[in-house]
Specification:
The complex is a heterodimer of chains A (about 450) and B (about 325). Helix content of chain A is about 55%, strand content about 10%. Chain A has a 5-stranded antiparallel beta sheet. A two-stranded antiparallel ribbon of chain A has the order 2-3. Chain A has 16 helices and 10 strands. Chain A starts with a strand and ends with a helix. Chain B is α/β, with parallel strands linked by helices and about 325 residues long. Chain B folds into 2 domains: about 220 residues, 3-Layer(aba) Sandwich (Rossmann fold), CATH 3.40.50.300; about 80 residues, Alpha-Beta Plaits. In chain B, the strands form 3 sheets. Chain B has a 6-stranded mixed beta sheet, with helices on both faces. In chain B, strands 2-1-4-5 form a 4-stranded antiparallel beta sheet, covered by helices on one side. In chain B, strand 7, helix 5 and strand 8 form a beta-alpha-beta unit. Chain B is globular. The relative contact order of chain B is 0.13. The chains are: A alpha+beta (about 450), B alpha/beta (about 325). The interface between A and B is large, with 46 and 52 residues.
């Protein structure tokens, strides 16, 4: 061999990594080329509108869903029903589908080496993939929000919306609050997406990586059904999926929401950092790589469990939270407030003389399960008596409600008489029958409020 | 003055845990040369190709690629392209979309280059079909087209002829020889000895991470010794008699039955084989065929890697009548 070697200098001629915007675009093209992603995107942008429009035009409404009973009354309620459903199932599943597969797909296709040779920077590959999956998830979430709003407005119109304490939000206020609620749901969505990235990196082509956000969602939903201490409940990354409801009371229950959003964002950052660390340590020359349970436990589950413990400690230390957060005084205050607001709504429907909440001086007295049970915690055995006053009437009115209070602070108050007030699900008005707002209604207890402040409020 | 050197590896050692994938490997590939990499499974071919692509770095040794010393992962110079362990394509994209996305990623002008690359590998007709429906051979060709997009000065390819039909093989051979003619170096691994023999003037044979031969293919013959040849004649019984009387020749087997009916397997140096043919013709026996049982390159591979020494697997098979 006669050869003249070129001078071997330092790596001055070294190829530069592909710029991040190009890598991002490449990842986006790959994601959007998948028929299932395109199908889900289309469903997100069309499905909620069709659902909300169809349900709003039916006689029976999904009254067991928050705001479901208001879908006839306001177009904004439909979007909130979609938000509730999305927070339970749709958003965790979307993150599974997109973020949970974005790294695993390369393992499945055997394209890692090809991608590394093309991009020449694992760091940029990670960032491009994370950004591309985030973009697609945001596009899907935006579709769910926009579509639900459009369907509701088209079918019912932008009428004022009754909040979870019965106060009326004008159309503009409802629009703003609905949008803020959707934005708040992004924080836990990001957390689930980051867990999806982590699973996708850690477990390779194993379908378990794809399922991690969905499994986490199921686990957290089960946990949220249990009467957990409120500090533990607030430390869960899915808390903001429920806490957005607090925006629809007056005053808004901002503390649980802010904590929920913060916890969601911290989880998103932590899980993304863990996924990044794991990805950068991966040996791409190891063809046998297929993730491992041990790696997931050590690199993913344990740090996130540690984060949860730390968050519980911080919340318990910095907030007045104790027990389940559902206490008699808070429930009585919440019920009385809702009753007063909704009584005014009924008054307007029946064209009775106008009355204000202050004039009504509504109070409630609640008991849980009789004398042998402590008056705190969730359960369907709460029984309350609401008392109110009308101007110029000497005697006070009373109404009885059975309350089904869930561990997340939401309750359904079911009227138990007198029948003139809350006995029928409809009231007869001059323009025909209308839903009786006092027959059955939803409410929300601020789990973090102290009983003292509830009493003052 | 000779051509410049595209690859110069000295004392390359690479281990994965306790497994030594490459052990003190030297490799030199000149620009304009197609260099074959041969070895049994687990010999270290893919690891070596991965080092050339920058997917890993050696634990010890010195590696220069296109005149640049490579010291860390993904730090190979511009002008290196190729694939190991399959071409790395996205099945949900069409062939053209795969190449266009890749070209844009690397900052190359897409339209012209993509069309040209597809044409070079003979995939213009299916350019807008999704890769999901492509055969293995078509994927191999598309992977090669992807490597061509960057106009490589060093092409590193793993089993490029995998799954190719004769037409596809012709395309791939034409592309590889064309690249080499234009001055690019090509390092390719293959299990198909006919491809290597047709394309590679030089080969490196690896066995358990070590180089057991590196140099021109023509030099390999000397490493092998005498080869078994299959002799087909008009009169097998007479041919056997003549072969038995030919000095320096041994009858390994035959004449056989069934598919090998009438075939005699003999072993000896080229001179003895020439002598045998002359004698057969003299004896009035028509020679219908005389060819190595195993091609020379394959025989060398089997002999050098030790595979041929295992009973029943080597070029010599079982001797019937050693003399």
């Amino acid at each position: 061999m006669t050869a003249t070697a070129a001078p071997a200098g330092p790596a001055a001629d070294e190829a530069r990594p592909a710029p991040l915007p190009r890598g991002y675009r490449f990842e986006l093209v790959k994601l959007l080329s998948q028929w299932r992603i395109r199908l889900v995107l289309a469903v997100c942008w069309i499905g909620p509108a069709a659902f909300v429009a169809a349900v709003s035009l039916q006689t029976s409404l999904p009254a067991d869903t928050v705001f479901g009973r208001w879908m006839h009354a306001s177009g904004w309620a439909g979007s909130l029903v979609v938000l509730g459903f999305s927070c339970s199932w749709a958003l965790p599943l979307l993150t599974s589908l997109v973020a949970g597969d974005v790294f695993a797909a390369e393992d499945r296709l055997g394209t890692w080496r090809h991608l590394l040779v093309a991009v020449r920077s694992p760091r940029r590959i990670f960032v491009a993939k994370a950004l591309a999956s985030l973009t697609v998830i945001l596009a899907m979430t935006a579709g769910l929000a926009a579509s639900g709003i459009a369907g509701g407005l088209a079918a019912v119109g932008g009428h004022p919306l009754a909040g979870l304490d019965g106060h009326m939000l004008s159309s503009a206020d409802a629009a703003t609050t609905v949008l803020i609620a959707w934005c708040c749901a992004l924080a836990p969505t990001l957390a689930f997406a980051a867990v999806g990235l982590l699973g996708s990196v850690a477990l390779g082509r194993s379908p378990m990586g794809l399922l991690m956000p969905a499994l986490l969602a199921v686990g957290l939903q089960l946990a949220q059904m249990l009467p957990l201490p409120v500090a533990v409940r607030m430390a869960l990354p899915s808390e903001a999926f429920l806490a957005w409801r607090g925006l629809f009371t007056d005053p808004a229950q901002t503390r649980p929401l802010l904590i929920g959003v913060a916890v969601g964002l911290v989880w998103a950052a932590a899980a993304t950092a863990l996924a990044y660390r794991l990805f950068m340590r991966r040996d791409f020359t190891d063809l046998a790589y297929d993730g491992s349970g041990r790696r997931v436990t050590v690199s993913g589950v344990l740090p996130l469990a540690g984060l949860t413990v730390l968050t519980v400690a911080v919340i318990a230390w910095t907030t007045p939270a104790h027990g389940s957060g559902i206490e008699r005084v808070k429930l009585e205050r919440s019920l009385a407030t809702s009753y007063a607001h909704l009584y005014r709504l009924q008054t307007r429907e029946l064209h009775r003389p106008a009355v204000t909440e202050a004039q009504l001086r509504a109070t409630a007295s609640c008991d849980k399960g009789g004398d042998r049970v402590a008056d705190e915690g969730p359960g369907n055995d709460w029984r309350c008596v609401v008392t109110w006053h009308l101007p110029g009437v000497a005697s006070a009115g009373t109404a009885i409600y059975q309350l089904d209070v869930t561990a997340d602070g939401r309750y359904v108050a079911d009227g138990d008489g007198p029948k003139e007030v809350n006995g029928y699900f409809q009231v007869r008005t001059s323009s025909g029958d209308a839903p009786n707002p006092l027959w059955q209604f939803d409410g929300d207890v601020d789990l973090l409020a102290s009983p003292a402040s509830a009493q003052k409020g | 003055m000779g051509r410049s050197r595209a690859v110069r590896a000295r004392g390359i050692t690479k281990s994965f845990g306790e497994v030594v994938a490459l052990d003190d490997v030297d490799l030199e590939v000149e620009a304009g040369q197609v260099h074959g990499l041969v070895g049994p499974n687990g010999a270290g071919k893919t690891t070596l190709l991965g080092l050339l692509l920058g997917l890993a770095v050696a634990d010890r040794g010195r590696l220069e690629i296109l005149g640049t010393q490579v010291g860390r992962t993904l730090a190979v110079p511009d002008g290196v392209a190729g694939f190991v362990d399959g071409p790395g394509l996205y099945p949900s994209l069409t062939a053209r979309q795969n190449l266009t996305a890749l070209a844009r990623l690397r900052g190359h002008d897409s339209a012209g280059g993509v069309g040209e690359a597809l044409e070079q590998v003979g995939l213009t007709d299916v350019a807008d079909d999704r890769v999901r429906g492509f055969s293995l051979g078509m994927r191999q060709r598309l992977g090669l087209a992807a490597a061509l997009l960057t106009r490589p000065r060093l092409l590193v390819i793993d089993e490029p002829a995998n799954g190719l039909d004769p037409a596809g093989k012709r395309h791939v051979h034409r592309v590889i020889t064309g690249l080499a003619a234009d001055g690019a170096a090509v390092v390719m691994s293959s299990h198909r000895m006919d491809d290597l023999a047709a394309l590679c003037p030089e080969v490196t044979i690896l066995s358990t991470g070590r180089v057991v031969f590196s140099g021109p293919v023509s030099k390999l013959a000397a490493e092998v010794g005498d080869l078994d040849h299959r002799l087909r004649t008009s009169d097998p019984a007479a041919a056997r008699e003549v072969a038995e009387g030919t000095p320096g020749l041994r009858i390994v087997r035959g004449p056989g039955d069934g598919a090998d009916a009438g075939v005699l397997v003999v072993r000896g140096p080229v001179e003895a084989l020439d002598d045998l043919v002359v004698r057969l013709v003299g004896a009035g026996v028509a020679v219908r065929g005389l060819a190595p049982v195993v091609p020379p390159l394959e025989a060398a591979f089997l002999a050098l890697t030790g595979i041929g020494t295992e009973p029943g697997t080597g070029p010599g098979e079982t001797e019937e009548d050693p003399r």
